[in-house]
Amino acid sequence: MIDYIDEIEITVESGAGGNGISSFRREKFVPFGGPDGGNGGEGGSVYFKGNSNLNSFRDLIQNRFYKANKGENGRGSNKNGKNGKDMIIQVPLGTEIIDSKSQKVLIDVIENDKSYLAIKGGKGGLGNSNFKTSRNQSPKKSTQGEKGNKIKVVLNLKTLSNIGIVGFPNVGKSSLISLITNSKAEVANYPFTTLTPNLGVIKTLDKDYLIADIPGIVEDASKGKGLGIKFLKHIERSENIIIVLDASCEKIEELNNQYKKLIKEIKSYSKSLPSRIKMIIINKYDLCKFKDQLCNLVLDKNIKQVIFSCIDSNKHDIEKLKKNLLF
Ligand SMILES: Nc1nc2c(ncn2[C@@H]2O[C@H](COP(=O)(O)OP(=O)(O)OP(=O)(O)O)[C@@H](O)[C@H]2O)c(=O)[nH]1
Ligand SMILES: [Mg+2]
After folding, report:
1. Mutate-to-test residue for ligand 1 from 187, 190, 196, highest number of ligand atoms within 8 A of CB
2. What b/e readout covers 38-73, taking b as 16+ CB neighbours within 10 angstroms?
3. pLDDT for the residue 33
4. What is the pLDDT of residues 278-309, one digit of tens each?
5. Which terminus in the chain has less CB density within 10 A, N or C?
6. Ligand 1 atom having least distance to the Cα of 285
7. Cβ 174 under 6 angstroms from ligand 1
């Protein structure tokens, strides 16, 4: 079963406005009643609504066509038609709504519970009572409702988070997010355990920090190796990026290599991403074979570097790391 979809194309259509009608009052003792044709109702509009409980477009996969309702036609006795029901499509925060034709981003859904108008419904037509003038007391004229609009849009999810975690597969990224947040990310001793992004939250008194853990990046991921670099879009909007390295390697030089390779892949996704790297966590310290040399290793003098072990850490270490992370 497919349960994670971060890009999908759908068609959305707003409702047509109802027609105004032409009608005349017919009452028992009023043989020539005036015009009383009501207006048509407005067509329903299409909205996208941010929902922080969603993290993918899984619920939209069944149906690729979303249509708002038509407005009702007007009726006699000056009764206006009811407005058509709006179509409200719930999407995760960080969803870009892109016009398939022009490739322009129409909407960026970033606020929870907020509805963003995508296409407005057609206006209702006017009933003949609107056209009464001193010279024409019995106008027959009424107008039709406006048609609805139909567009194809691509929904592209770029997860919103404060901190994004990046590293090679199996280095302990998911272990880390499970330790420092409420996330129950799957952890296992093989590469590509994580196939879809995990989100976790660190709550502090004044702010909630969203942390994103994404599938591992390998050398040449930008050329399609491993799972590729497409998942980097989920940390593209993270204010801060954390790199996790694995110290269980044979030699200290390998840490340098891991770091350089990661930077290369991140750069090939976006030149501006590396400037947001705020911390390097050298994980699996418990398995490190060159502990005495590790304290002197400086991978990048501008970036905070922390030696850590997800397996051996105690509550105090975790709290200290969290404080460090929140800068
Ligand atoms: N000894 C030791 N093992 C660790 C440490 N951190 C994580 N592990 C183990 O390393 C393995 C991989 O951990 P994950 O957290 O799944 O790694 P990941 O980076 O999320 O891996 P992918 O999702 O595959 O990219 C698991 O067996 C963890 O238990 C550590 O500090 N020390
Ligand atoms: Mg993982």
Report:
1. 187
2. bbbbbbbbbbbebbeebbbbbebeeeeebbbbbbbb
3. 81
4. 999 999 999 999 999 998 999 999 999 999 99
5. N
6. 31
7. yes
Which of these CATH numbers, 3.40.50.2300, 3.40.50.300, 3.30.420.40, 3.30.365.10, describes 163-325? Answer: 3.40.50.300
- Every domain range in the chain assigned CATH 2.70.210.12: 1-157
Rounded distance between C-alpha atoms, residue 14 and residue 28, angstroms = 42
| Average confidence (pLDDT) over 228-254 | 94
From residue 238, alpha-carbon distances to 201, 272, 282 in Å are 13, 12, 20
**Ligand 1 close to Cβ of residue 247 (< 6 A):** no
Lowest mean per-residue pLDDT among 75-84, 198-207, 306-315: 198-207
Residue 249 confidence (pLDDT): 95
For residue 171, report the distance from its CA to the centre of ligand 1, in Å: 5
Q: What pLDDT is attached to residue 224?
A: 86
- Confidence class of residue 2 from pLDDT cuts 50, 70 and 90? low
CATH superfamily of 1-157: GTP1/OBG domain (2.70.210.12)
For strand 277-283 and strand 240-246, is the pairing parallel, antiparallel, or unpaired? parallel
Say yes or no: CB of residue 309 within 6 Å of ligand 1: yes
pTM: 0.87
- Could you tell me the distance, in angstroms and rounded to a whole number, from the CA of residue 54 to the centre of ligand 2? 20
List, by residue range, all CATH 3.40.50.300 domains of the chain: 163-325
What gap in Å lies between CA 116 and CA 114, rounded to an integer?
A: 6
Q: Token digits for 253? A: 């030089």
Q: Which of 19-33, 80-94, 175-189, 226-240 tops mean pLDDT?
A: 80-94
Letter for the amino acid at 171? V
Give residue 197 CA to ligand 1 midpoint distance, Å. Answer: 16
Q: What is the pLDDT of residue 265?
A: 94
